[in-house]
Amino acid sequence: MSSNRPLKLVWIYPDLLSTYGDQGNTIVLERRAALRGIPTETVHMRSDEPVPTDGDIYLLGGGEDRPQILAAQRLRNDGGLRVAAEGGAVIFGVCAGFQILGHEFGGEEGQLVPGLGLLDIRSFRGEQRAVGEVVGDVATELNVPRITGFENHQGATQIGPNARPLARVVAGIGNGGGDGTEGAYAGRILGTYMHGPALVRNPGLADLLLRWAVGAELQPIDDSWAGRLREERLNAVLTSG
Ligand code: GLN
């Protein structure tokens, strides 16, 4: 990010990838940047528009199978997100958006659909749909407190050697690939199955993306409410059996 212009947030494909209020993630980034005196500019790019390559943070939300396939095709043809990734942009994908960042994912009939290959993950149609609350302990090096969210996906994801798990599952399914992990990241590209929206429920995750984008530590903000929500959801999940 250059210091003389606002931090540019790019919401990818509101017409295809916006289930479960995932666009709320952009609002949280705007707000938490503003609290640190960092100006932002947010653009919403529909799937018939070219993806700008000068964004600082790109966000992709969840989607039903067919819109997800269309989004993957259009993003591959467009090529803008790859250019942005190669330039060091931060990319955050949720559920369908997470799967699209990987090499491939399962379509509505289980057919394998090519993704963008920006993150070393492979997704496929799982045997059971994962629906409910998910809680995870984040990789220590990311310095983010325990995360919670809502998951609803048929796909399962396996992480390759060039990516790392975002979290270890404490409750819920997460990636569902048999290794007890949730989400994945490599460099500044990060994905998760957590809706909620994820950054609303997990301000620590929002701050991680902002830290990556500005390349500096951020002033702390009192987030005790988020800790209370996390504990409440965890208790609800663990006591519901
Ligand atoms: N269609 C994908 C799946 O079922 C993603 C769903 C979602 O984004 N919630 O795995």
Based on CA atoms alone, the radius of gyration comes out at 17 Å
Strand order of the largest sheet: 2-1-3-4-11-10-9-7-8
Q: State the total count of DSSP E strands.
A: 11
Hetero compounds: glutamine
Q: State the end-to-end distance.
A: 46 Å
Report the structural category: alpha/beta
| Mean pLDDT level | 95
Main β-sheet: number of strands, strand sense, barrel status?
9 strands, mixed
Give the helices and strands as they follow along the chain: EHEEHHEHEEEEEEEHHH
Enumerate the spans where pLDDT stays under 50 for 5 or more consecutive residues: none
Describe the secondary structure blueprint for this structure:
Blueprint: E1 7-12, H1 24-34, E2 40-45, E3 57-60, H2 65-78, H3 80-86, E4 90-94, H4 96-101, E5 104-106, E6 112-114, E7 121-138, E8 147-159, E9 164-171, E10 181-186, E11 189-192, H5 198-201, H6 203-214, H7 224-239
Parallel strand pairs: 1-2, 1-3, 3-4, 4-11
Antiparallel strand pairs: 5-6, 7-8, 7-9, 9-10, 10-11
Helix pairs in contact: 1-6
The protein binds glutamine.
